[in-house]
Specification:
The chain has 143 residues and is an alpha/beta fold. The protein has helices at residues 2-19, 31-37, 53-57, 74-82, 106-115, 138-142; strands at residues 42-43, 46-47, 63-65, 87-91, 120-124. The chain is built from six helices and five strands, in the order ααββαβαβαβα. The chain starts with a helix and ends with a helix.
Length: 143
């Protein structure tokens, strides 16, 4: 208990000292603004990319991060228009037949990744909380 109190006191003290700094939260001026203006990315009063987006992305990996979603036909449309993906991060757990639009069944997660031609599927939302009646390891075993 004393350890927690000491850690809490140190954190509160650090935050207090940070907020007391004269430069905290104010706009840059003087030498700081001169350094900003000399940056090769700073033009016409704002920062800009030096390379066009296509050039930056030409060797990039493509990732799809899915939110909480049930499977629907739009998944195949996403794959056709935006795929293939190097990595698909999709929910796979906390599902139930009574909530088809909230989380995907494991088989639907696999189908979505297949429709997107995902090289790697990273299933999430399984074994973290026991919100529904399935066992914590059931989603990954079914997948």
């Amino acid at each position: 208990m004393i350890t927690i109190f000491i850690i809490l006191a140190v954190v509160i003290s650090a935050i207090y000292l940070l907020l007391q700094q004269k430069t905290f939260g104010k706009n840059p001026d003087g030498e700081c603004i001169n350094r900003i203006e000399k940056s090769p990315n700073y033009k016409n009063g704002r920062f800009q990319n030096l390379s066009p987006t296509e050039e930056v992305l030409k060797d990039a990996s493509y990732l799809y991060l899915g939110g909480d979603s049930g499977y629907e036909t739009h998944f195949s449309q996403i794959g056709k228009s935006h795929g293939p993906f190097d990595l698909a991060i999709l929910d796979c757990g906390q599902y139930g037949k009574d909530r088809p639009y909230i989380h995907m069944m494991p088989e639907q997660t696999a189908l979505a990744a297949k429709e997107w031609n995902a090289k790697v599927l990273f299933p999430v939302h399984w074994a973290k909380f026991a919100l529904l009646l399935h066992a914590r390891n059931e989603p990954i075993n079914r997948l």
